[in-house]
Structures are given as C-alpha cells and as structure tokens.
Structure of SH3 domain-containing protein:
Amino acid sequence: MTGVAADDVLNIRALADADADIIAGLAPDATDVEVVFPSLDGRWGQIRAGERTGWVAMRFLSRQPGQTGDSYPAITACYGNEPYWSLETDGEQAQLTLSGETLVDGYLRDGTRSANRIDIFGFAAGDAEGEARGVLRRELCSDGMSDRLFGLSITLIYVGARGHSTLSGCCVLSN
C-alpha cells in the first residue's frame, strides 16, 4: 500500500464508490493485497476481505517489484471442491492433494504465458509418482461455497500412479 497515513486505514467498500458502505479496513502497512478485478475506469480494485469481497481505491495500491500485467502470476494456492482438492506452492515446490490424499509432492516448473494471450498461463508440477499440468486464467472465479471472488481460475490435469483427474478451481497469490 502507499499513501495511507500511519494512523489511518484504507477503507474496503461494498461498491466501487467513495460513498458506499465501509465493510472493513486495511492497515497502512498491509502487504500482498490481491486485486481480483479492476473497475472499468481503473480507479477501484475488488479485493478479497475475509469471506467477502470489497472495493479499494487503486491510488493507494502499488504493484510488487517484478509484477506486470502479463507476467506469470506467483500463485501460492489453488482450491476446488466436489471433490475437494488443493495445490499449494512456495514457487519451487508444489503439493497437490485430492480428498486428503497427496498426489504430487515435488517440483514446480515455472509457468509460461500463452503465445497469443496475455491472460493465460501454463505450468507443470510433479514427482516420481505423477505430474499435474495446469492452465491459469486471469478472470473472476468463484469457489461456489462463499461470497469470495478470486482473480485466477485454474484447470488442472493430473496423471500418475494414482490414476488421472481433471480438476477446476480458483487460485490466490497470497493466503
């Protein structure tokens, strides 16, 4: 965040409007604020706020070093349900679990951007037992269980010693 006084908070509003109800606030030293969707005029950004989403004024946010609109999103986790699954990563290693069973616990290959789209990326994660390949898209995504919205969707294909699965869900840049 930038430009918020040390004794103040950045208001999270119900709508992209300075007169909208305040639903929460961000501390002036907050980091890793993930904008899941910008307003059409670019002045507001929709963010996750607990189990909800809200809007903050973009003039108080700045990109982290190395981030550009077309760079590979540095995901930390992806989730899906029915069946429940998760992919967690630290940027080098990845762990894929499906219904509580670990399918992959190994490397994460850096993602690549689509050759013809700036909003689609591919990656691979694997170990000796199997591999998961995924396609990330910058788009609004719902987990189907809460009012939260996410800015990245994923389609994941696992092939390995424990069979194969095609999974879909949403991803986050920070937890």
